[in-house]
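Worked problem 6 (solution included).
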Amino acid sequence: MKEQVLVCPVCGGALLRTERQYTCPAGHSFDVAKEGYVNLLCTSKSADKMGDSKESAAARHAFLERGYYGCLKEALTPLLHGNVLDICCGEGYYDSVPADGALYGFDLSKTMVRLAAKRKNGGQYFVANLASRSRVCSSVGARWAAVQRDPRCAPFVADQRDGVRSALPQ
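Solution. The predicted structure is:
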């Protein structure tokens, strides 16, 4: 079940996807890059200079591709149901799109979001500053809870009952 979860970071209106961009009723638009991600930053600073550097991204990618966290990835995948928000998604290493929902990945680093989008896993990836997350996401299920990334690097899963909860078992 895919729901509308994005709101315009400029005015708060619903962001709807067309073929190559997201637009809101007020006319603000955000293009889908050729790699498949969308930059939702509203700043005059270059997104290339925010978040992880290219060198840091390459080092993280090389480390993860060696499989050191493969067991964590395998443990998380079956826990993902409904609409999944991966906050600070990095390169999308842990992301799998649930059959009964959608995957939305957010990171401040354009370099990392590019890598995530290139995985072609069916997720939708966004460069965004979620410090003002209420201006980026509206609801997943019944509501959107203010959450921070779990220090154990777990994606967050939306749930009608709980708002947003960690995907790791308690």
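Discussion: DSSP finds three helices and nine strands in the chain.
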